[in-house]
Each structure stands twice: as structure tokens, then as C-alpha cells.
Amino acid sequence: MKKVNKNWNEAFSKKNFGNQFWDEFATRAQNVAAKVVRVKTSAEAQAAILDIITSSNAKKVVATEEVLSPGKGLAAALKMSGVAVYTAQADIRNHADTADVGIAGVEFGIAETGSVCEDGLAIEQRLITTLPPTSIVILNSNHIAANIQTAFEVISKVFDKGYISFITGPSRTSDIERVLTIGVHGPSQLIIIAIDEETKGV
In Å, what is the CA distance from 73 to each residue of 68, 69, 182, 202? Predict the structure, then answer.
């Protein structure tokens, strides 16, 4: 599973991009029912993710290999807790629809809407963030765009073709009588783990 372009960081402008927009992003994300956890290091992110998964009694996790780095211990810790972890492309396709939790990286957040931007070129990435009832996304806290316009400017610099998703809170829908239901067409819980240090995985 490879990103369509590895130069996202080069497209982030200093003027309308950075952690100066973090507070607005976190507030707006929480306003649309996302849970936001900010940590300093990938080790702290590991601990937060492990706590979320074990406290929810999850038994099956699907995750991208680049996020769930084998050398950093989270996958091993989950397996020791009795959680089945699937990171191979074929395994993700076979297990995403029955997994309890999906873990994937996202490119950046958008302060104006509280959304996160996902490079979803790989179908496995999309399966991870849409099928499990709990979606955990990993974000660098310095990678926050001020607004939608800035987000599209960034995308235009690095994205030629493929699939981009803007994820704003958990899945929600309402019927003709305007009765709101959470989690019908996607995850019922979105948890954003923001890491201050530059990292490629947890």
C-alpha cells in the first residue's frame, strides 16, 4: 500500500498551514462528535491506541502497515492482549468488514471544518476508514490547514489522480423525519490521534 505522492510535506505552506490552527481544528472536530487525543510522541500514541482497543474489548483490528509499524511494538502489544491484527492487503480486504477497529494515517486536518484529509488511492485504506465501527486515524498535529481552500491548494500540488476523502466526524444520516442516526453508513466512532513529533507510524 503506497501513497500516491510522498511529497505532501513540501506542499504545506507556512502561511495557512501549521499547528497555529490546531485549537480551531480540535474544537470543530469535537463539535462533530469526533474524539481528539493529542500526544507528544509515537510511544504515547501507542499507549492511547492500546487503551482504546483494550477498553472497548475489541477482538479484531485492521491497519495499514505504514501506520502500525512492526518495529515499534504496538502490533505485538495488541496480539499479546488477544487482539487479532491484520495489516497485509489481502487480509485487510478479507477482514475489514468484520473488524472492530480500523487504524490508518491521514495526510492533514482542516481547521475550518474539523475534517481530516485521507489519501485513499489504495482500496485497503478506504476499507479501513469506512467499514470498522471504530475508526482511529493518526495525524501529525503540525499538519493543519486553515481552511478548505488551503486544503485544495495542497492537494493540487501533490495529487495527480486517485481518490481523496475528507472525513468529518463519525458517519451520520437522517431520515425524512430528520431523525439523526450515527454509524449507519460508516464508523460510529472517529478517534483522531494527533502526534506532535514527526513520525510515520506508531
Answer: 9, 7, 33, 8
